[in-house]
Amino acid sequence: MVRNKRLTFLASLIKDYPVVCDIGSDHGYVLEMAFKTGTIQRGIATDVREMPLQSAMKTLKNYPVRTILSDGFLAIDEPFNAAVIAGMGAHLMTEIMEHAPHHEAIYVLQANDRIAYLRQRIIELGFQIVDEYVVHDRFYYVIVVVKRGHMTLSEEDVLIGPFLKEKADSRPYYEYRLRQLKKIIDVADENKKGELSLEWNYLKKRLECGQTKE
Ligand SMILES: C[S@@+](CC[C@H](N)C(=O)[O-])C[C@H]1O[C@@H](n2cnc3c(N)ncnc32)[C@H](O)[C@@H]1O
């Protein structure tokens, strides 16, 4: 079984729901780990491409998993309690979430980029954020958990995270992000500079106030 902190953490968030759907499952490792460590009864592994789906079939052959060739949720014809969408860009992820079914479920979202865009767009699509986490495994990965519902976010919430900003665990990530933003801001055009500076200011303020709870 392939193990890394990101996969292990994603699996820990879905492992005790009865039916779990993995959108863009690729190798199928997230579901495999969730089956090994939790109480999932059934899985649905999907991918838009045939080759990754075959790879998931191989990994998950000993588990009660249905594999479906599907663009996002489009070919999913049964309810689930939790879904995980991980390891892709925020733009693609929010396009997939536009077609999420309307029954009650939690969605564990781990985008590789543009987390602020993901927060903003997911709220516009009629979801509320229920928690956020950061996992460090060579890179920093932000995980946003959502369910259907209404929520308003301040500019600070969108940029640095309504839950992350209250967590002590966010500190190393925020410090890393400050360093990263500094480099980008130095070479950005004026429009982009303004937007990035906003995030920089919110991060700096949070870190200086020590408002991330210990
Ligand atoms: C980088 S892999 C991530 C695999 C796994 N979810 C993880 O986090 O390790 C992204 C996978 O998403 C699949 N994918 C891309 N667009 C998709 C879509 N619209 N619907 C379903 N799967 C998609 C790709 O084929 C690929 O297998």
Commentary on this structure:
α1 (5-14) crosses α2 (29-37), α4 (90-97) packs parallel to α5 (115-124) and α7 (170-187) packs antiparallel against α8 (190-209). The chain is elongated, with a radius of gyration of 18 Å. It has helices at residues 5-14, 29-37, 50-59, 90-97, 115-124, 155-160, 170-187, 190-209; strands at 19-23, 42-47, 65-69, 82-88, 106-111, 127-137, 139-148. The chain has a seven-stranded mixed β-sheet with strand order 3-2-1-4-5-7-6, sandwiched between helices. It contains eight helices and seven strands, in the order αβαβαββαβαββααα. The protein is an alpha/beta fold. The model has no long low-confidence stretch (mean pLDDT 95). The chain binds S-adenosylmethionine. S-adenosylmethionine is lined by residues 23-26, 46-49, 52, 71-72, 86-88, 92, 96.
Provide a concise account of the structure shown.
With 214 residues, the protein is α/β, with parallel strands linked by helices. Helix content is 43%, strand content 23%. It has a 7-stranded mixed β-sheet with strand order 3-2-1-4-5-7-6, with helices on both faces.
The strand order across the widest sheet is 3-2-1-4-5-7-6
CATH superfamily of the largest domain: Vaccinia Virus protein VP39
Main sheet summary: 7 strands, mixed
Structural class: alpha/beta
The helix content is 40-55%
Number of domains: 2
Strand content: 15-25%
How many strand elements? 7
Span between N and C termini? Answer: 34 Å
SSE succession: HEHEHEEHEHEEHHH
